[in-house]
Amino acid sequence: MSRRFLLPSLLLLVTATLAGCNDSGDQKAGAGAGAERPPSPVSVVIMKKAEQPLTTVLPGRADAFQTAAIRPRVSGVIKEIAFREGSEVKQGDLLYKIEDDTYRAEVAQAKASLAKAEASVPSAEANLARYERLVGSGATQIEFENAKVTLLQAQADVAQAKAALNAAEINLDLTEIEAPFEGVTSASAFSIGNVVTANQAETLMTLRRLDPIYIELTESSANLLRLREAIEAGRVSQEGGTIADIRLTLEDGTQYPLVGKLDMSEMAVSETTGTFSIRALFDNPDNLILPGMYVRATVVVGKEGGYLIPQRAATRNARGEVTAKFVNAQNIVETRTFAHSQVSGNNWLVSEGINDGDKLIVDGFQWIGDGAPVQPVEATVDEQGLVIEKSPAPAGAPAAKP
Questions:
Q1: 225 pLDDT higher than 90
Q2: Distance CA 327, CA 371 (A)
């Protein structure tokens, strides 16, 4: 009897245990199916249409404001080099001194010739006056005319002697070679004791003025035509009809702190490159920019109304069109494509396909696909398009209404 009772009891116990396990598993599965993953937070910028600067980035190269190749204008032996190579000099500072003994002798000789010429003038004047009184009473007209010619020749000799003295004094002064303007000296190609000749082909040194400094820029003629067409159509405005300002990025990527201005625009297009030249002028008090340096210039060519999309928040498709991701009214991600875009600093400037209040995703858009639900978090960006401030929505805040 005990065995018959034990077997049905064990069967009932196993059945109850299996039923309990099935109930527990069904409860866990139900709990997992009922829980939903919260939308991912994304940083967004609220779009607002405004008039924005229209910029273009141009390659450029620095050039000295003034350059002088220093050459001797008289021949002789270099007696003194009065400057330190690579240093700054003022206008009128002595650079080179050439031996002047022979030039001093020439000045003395010219002074003596002048004195001799001046000594003959009084006698010629007296002789002319005497013949003038005696004309018709003992002196002929021919003698009077000859006396007049003699005086004129004496006066001409004085003028010639004065000119020779002036030339000799100029040559003496030219033995001192002075700086024609304020600038920075180069290395000297000649040393003390070297013989130089007047107006020789080889320069003694080069003097450059670096403050201010020129930046030579090049722009394609096609861009120039497009800009003019946009101005005539009224899409782009220019204050005073000129470029507003010019900013530089140096070779190491740093921003030059000073703003330049347009100095000259070439009114001809290169036949070989199809570009035209623009010359900008920058203050260079610390000589940070040196001639020959390559730079990139951001030129503000006008203003145009539209919306700014940071370049860090956009990509380009296979056709080269700008694409960006937005959050719609249902907090769903969508991608928009813009066929036309302009450059405005570190942003793309678009005028179509966006409305005021639209939410542009500026952070985390690389990992979110279209149709994904998200939680927008309003943010601000700096000039480089980096997120610098976020304003998270308070806990329990209602979702945006469509």
A1: no
A2: 10
Output the CA–CA distances (angstroms, integers) from residue 282 to 87, 217, 232, in the order listed. 21, 13, 30
Is pLDDT of 396 > 50? Answer: no
Q: Tell me the domains of the chain and their CATH numbers.
A: 40-54+305-391 (2.40.420.20), 55-64+209-304 (2.40.30.170), 72-99+175-202 (2.40.50.100), 101-173 (1.10.287)
Strand 76-81, strand 387-391: pairing: unpaired
Task: Let me know: does 74 contact 100? Beta carbons within 8 Å.
Answer: no
Measured distance CA(120)–CA(196) in Å, rounded: 40
Q: Which of 383, 384, 385, 343 is nearest to 362 (CA)?
A: 385
Higher pLDDT pick, 126 / 36: 126
Rounded to whole angstroms, what are the CA distances from 250 to 257, 296, 389? Answer: 10, 7, 28
* The one-letter amino acid at 106: E
> What φ, ψ does residue 148 adopt, rounded to 5°?
-65, -40
Q: pLDDT for 194-215, tens place per residue?
A: 999 999 999 999 999 999 999 9
Instruction: For residue 384, give the nearest of 322, 315, 326, 312 by alpha carbon.
Output: 312
The single-letter DSSP state of residue 401 is P
Q: What is the DSSP string of 106-131?
A: HHHHHHHHHHHHHHHHHHHHHHHHHH
- What pTM, to 2 d.p., does this model score? 0.65
182 is written with which tokens? 């304020």
